Amino acid sequence: MTTRPPTLRDKRRYLLVRIEPAGIPFDQKELYYAIADSITSLFGDAAAAIMIQAVVAAEGDYIFIRCRRGTERELAIALSTITSCRETRIVLRIIAASGTLESLRERIHTMNVPEPTAVVQGDVTFDKKTHTSVYCNGQKVDVIEKGFKNTHRLFLTSEDMETS
């Protein structure tokens, strides 16, 4: 069987989507069903049939979703409404849309994504209890109580910190 010439093929678009929180294991098939349910509930079966969405590939925390050209806006809307996949809370962030997978893969490699780092800053005191502060990516501060029993964790932002 011969392949169709480019003028007769369906025009497709690919969306690069990041799954948050990072590092959550997911099944592509389950994610496909969650996306299909979202599209169907928002736009109906006819629009879902026109869209022809598919989860093409997954690389780390990124997934590639294919759809027919002209329907990427509706697909992005449907992706933004997904809050869980098989009892796991997730958020799908649309990074980019393109006509080829290669350009999206290049975009992943050229993005300046800071690596997750945890820096232990030292001991702090809250309510006459000693805690250890840990900064993660400069956004979040975890304060962990020292002790063996009843260890409490406080979550602060960088705005909550006092400079001395």
SSE arrangement, N to C: EHHEEHEEEHEEEE
Name the CATH superfamily classification of the largest domain.
Answer: Ribonuclease P, Pop5 subunit
CATH architecture grouping of the largest domain: 2-Layer Sandwich
Structural category: alpha+beta
* Proportion of residues in β-strands: 35-45%
Largest sheet, in brief, is: 4 strands, antiparallel
- Mean pLDDT across residues: 81
Count every beta strand, where a strand is a DSSP E run of 2 or more residues. 10
Please tell me about this protein's structure.
With 164 residues, the protein is an alpha+beta fold. It folds into two domains: 12-110, 2-Layer Sandwich (Alpha-Beta Plaits); 118-157, no CATH class. 26% of the residues lie in helices and 38% in strands. The strands form three sheets. The protein has a four-stranded antiparallel sheet with strand order 2-3-1-6, sandwiched between helices. The chain has a four-stranded antiparallel sheet with strand order 7-8-9-10, with no helix packed on it.
SSE order and pairing:
Layout: E1 12-20, H1 28-43, H2 45-51, E2 54-59, E3 62-68, H3 72-80, E4 84-85, E5 88-89, E6 91-98, H4 101-110, E7 118-126, E8 129-136, E9 140-145, E10 153-157
Antiparallel strand pairs: 1-3, 1-6, 2-3, 4-5, 7-8, 8-9, 9-10
Helix pairs in contact: 1-2, 1-3
